[in-house]
Amino acid sequence: MDFNSKAFARRFHYEGNDLGARLTEAGTEFRLWAPTAETVQLRLFRSGHEGEAFETLALDRGEKGVWFAGINQRLDGVYYDYLVTAAGNTRRTADPYARACGLNGQRSMVVDLAATDPEGWQEDKAPARQPEDIIYEVHVREFSWAESGGFPEHWRGKYKAFCCADTTLFDRGSQPTGLAYLRQLGVTHVQLMPVYDYGSVDEAHPDDSFNWGYDPVNYNVPEGSYSTDPTRGEVRIRELKELVQSLHRQGFRVIMDVVYNHTYHQDSWLERTVPGYYYRTWTDGSWSNGSGCGNDVASERSMCAKYILDSVLYWAEEYHMDGFRFDLMGLLDTDLMERIRAALDERFGRGEKLVFGEPWAAGPTARKRGVRLADKKTLAGLDPEIGAFCDGVRDAVKGPVMYREKPGFVNGGSGFEKRILHSITAWCGEARNFRAAAPSQVITYLSSHDDMTLWDKLVVTMDPQQNFDDPAPQVMRASRLAAAIYMTCQGRLFLLSGEEFGRTKQGEDNTHKAPIELNRLDWERAWQNRELVEYYQGLIALRKQLPALCDKTEQAGKRLLHSQVPAARCVTALLENGGRWSKLLLAYNASSHPVELELEEGEWELLADERSSFWWQEHPAVQSAQVQPMAAMILGKR
């Protein structure tokens, strides 16, 4: 069959929203889209990981390639799988549309979702949006694994750790950790690295290995290794809902990291159900590998697009997720991303749910002719509420991630002045390195889970001794300068958890399966580098008071009144602000010499310099200004 043909889509596209297992008043209904199947059998189990089937039933083929079975019994808590025969071959598969599963996701489970709701779930809602979105990326296990975090031992590394509102450093009772620390820092959105069911950690022995989780198995089921009992399918659902509810109550919105561009293996439930349909292949039949993971999902095919869209809406509606970060969004087609944006807007209000992703891929992909991908080339033509990570800011500030020892503006590089100025206005209108239509499309960041941490990049490029725990003093100065730059650029702010206290992975740039001892958040380090934390805290608090930087509209770039390069490796920019300060003067000096600033007439206040971001006190008045070497200065005109 030609899966790319319009004829196939017309014949087999199914619009129903009832695929998977559904409980009804009369019993249980099972529906599986498998248009190429010759027969489909349903098997029922008492356990999610052991024992034989207690019943096997044949499904009936219906319209549009949907197979159906109805049972006059509510099978809540019963596990199941399918035997799908296509082209004479019979393969066992779990249900791609499953909403619950057993241990390691090998069997699907029928679930009464209402029974998994925590108390008060129907009243749960996200906190009101703040003037700025501050996105903080965390991994569930990394967040609470370290003993220093002060979390209950039996909840460390689990969803339940996020239900602890007021943890403190284990030997310093006044130093907050966890959610209390994030509240103090000023975070507005917690972005969870993958929490769907993934395949690279054995849920029966979760402490024996570690992984970031970019290995999807069951897209619509929470990961079991983070639950207190992965053998019971309902437990992981309830505990993830409790996590979201707790974050909402503590004042945070929740973003879900989703990976729809590839699956853990080529031999996935999708492939076993409809062989060849859900993946891209080259003309010689070989699998496309633009993801670098051995397979690329064919998002442009109608039922694959429906599967992804249904999944996003399910997480938004059932789990109250407030946004979605798309891994390798550059492999997904623009039509799908526009449909996702429109559907979320229709259900929840314009822009209420954040949508953004990585506008790149690991290599070329075998997309259908005429399909446009949601990458950097097409970003400016997408809905302005579809965002992307801006590598233009990242690489200009600290140097390219692909070259460990190449510096950027803050760590000794030359020729970056123009790129820094583009970064201030979120690269809107620039086409060479990155181009966005509005700051609403730009995720301004310096570090994420990928590549070296900001701290490690600075150590590698600035400290001859390569001491990641106690580096040369210039590393701390460069950290402050880097933070001051990207936190005064337009766009939405994003930071890797622990960046603000100098998080180190000892120079490793890909720790996706490194030991948890290397990946964990070291809460003791937040105390050791508390002055750096306070600097970040002040910049975040200050930013929320500056309309010039929080402006996400297409007109935001016009706030830039003047910019210049007064000296080598030094740039300044004057912006129209409004509010308490009518104008802002930003100065970034990465040189080894102080630079005098020219101030226009009026009353100016010092909002931040190399020592402090003055978040806790009145801003000093200044008559003249000199920005120090390896430092930033922010001035506001009354």
UniProtKB/TrEMBL annotation:
GO molecular function term, any single one: pullulanase activity
Q: What is its EC number?
A: 3.2.1.41
The record's listing under Pfam families reads:
Alpha-amylase (PF00128), CBM_48 (PF02922)
Q: Which UniProt keywords apply?
A: Carbohydrate metabolism, Cellulose degradation, Glycosidase, Hydrolase, Polysaccharide degradation
InterPro entries, alphabetized: GH, GH13_cat_dom, Glyco_hydro_13_N, Glyco_hydro_b, Ig-like_fold, Ig_E-set, PulA_typeI
Major enzyme class: hydrolase
Segments forming domain Glycosyl hydrolase family 13 catalytic? 137-543
The text of the family note is:
Belongs to the glycosyl hydrolase 13 family.
The name under which this protein is listed is Type I pullulanase
Q: What species is this protein from?
A: Allofournierella massiliensis
Designated gene of the protein: pulA
